[in-house]
Every structure is written in C-alpha cells, then in structure tokens.
Amino acid sequence: MPTDHSQSTTAPVVDSALEAVPVASHFDSAKQQHDSVMLGMWLFLVTEIMFFGGAFAAYTIYRIYYGEAFHLASRTLDAMVGTVNTLVLLTSSLTMVLAVDASEKGKRGLTIGYIVATLVLGGIFLGVKAGEYQHKFHEHHAPMLGLPFHWEPGPATEGGAKLFFGLYFGMTGLHALHMVIGMAILGIFIVRCAIAKDVRARSQGLEVMGLYWHFVDIVWIFLFPLLYLIDRT
Length: 233
Prior knowledge:
Blueprint: H1 10-20, H2 30-65, H3 67-74, H4 79-104, H5 108-138, H6 158-195, H7 203-229
C-alpha cells in the first residue's frame, strides 16, 4: 500500500528524497546517479537551445530584411491574449516547482495535485493558442498548404508578411509540440506517483521533468515579445 512520507526542512528533505530513489546497478551511489541524470538533461537542453536558436536567428535575419512587413504583421496579433497566456504558462512553472518540492517531502496527494494543476494550465495555454490559430486561418493569414492569403496593406509587404506568419506558425507550433510531449510525460508521472510505495522515489524524475518544463516556458518568454510586442511602439 503506497504511503506518504512527510519531511519538515529543506536541505535534509532533498537528501532524504535522493536516498529513496532506486539506484541503477551501474551507479555507485544515489548522488552519482542524480548528478549523471541531471548532466544528461542539461546536455539535452543545450541541443534544444541550438534547435530553437536556429529559428530565432532566422526570425532576426528576415526581420532585418522585411522590417515594415514584420511590423504590420506583428500588430495583427492580440497582445492581450498573448499576455494572459504568458501568465498562465508562468503559473504552470510555479505549480511544477511545487510538485517537485512536494514529491521530495513525500507528499503524494500534493504532488499529484500540483502535476494535475500544471497539466490544466498547460491545456489552457494550448487551448488559447488553438483559438489564435483558428482566428488567423479565418483572417487568411496562414500561408501554408496552398491556402488563400489575404493581406490588406498591399502587395509591397505581402511577401514579408507571409514570412512573418510562416515563422509565427512554425515557432509557436514547435513550442506547442514540446508542451504536448511534456504534458504526456507528466500524465505518466501521475500514474507512477500514484502507485509508488514512496513518492520520493519519483522526485528525481520530476526534477528532470521540471527542468524540461521550465525550458519550454523560457522559450515562450523569448517568443512572446518577438512576435507580439517588439513592434508595438
């Protein structure tokens, strides 16, 4: 029968949680395993930074060449909706931190509750983003799959506007895909935390998952001003 193992202080809590994590046979200790897992995750995130860095570089170069078109196209995005969605995503980072903390303290119910809250907030973010996509398709601002493209400012800036919206859908779509993957893994963690004899044994995995989730949030922190705010003044 799974049980909760509550702890009261911070540093000893982390050490205690580490001791509860099963150690694989090829590691000498729980700490060595933890350090190796975290190093692996950071290396993975470095590759993700290079991946998104290419997209940000492409955006910057095209914005230099098509500044007027990017200015006009950016102003068609709803900055208020983007701001609200940013707050939702930042709140999900907070609930993710709380989930990791609760798991390290052996609080199963809180751990699962905060993971569920993270999933709900992630779902709200994706739902709002889907609504924005639908609006852009309705306005014929989706230059893909041979769909008609309507651009009121005129043909002088139409090519640049197509590039902007192509980058908008590409970059936010990749970001959304990373969120979907993260949410699927969090769903698995709910089950694993529910059936674990000691939820602290899942704390290391949740810590790694937390790093991934924060990385996805940070990517959005860069996407939001580039796409929604940079041409508002």
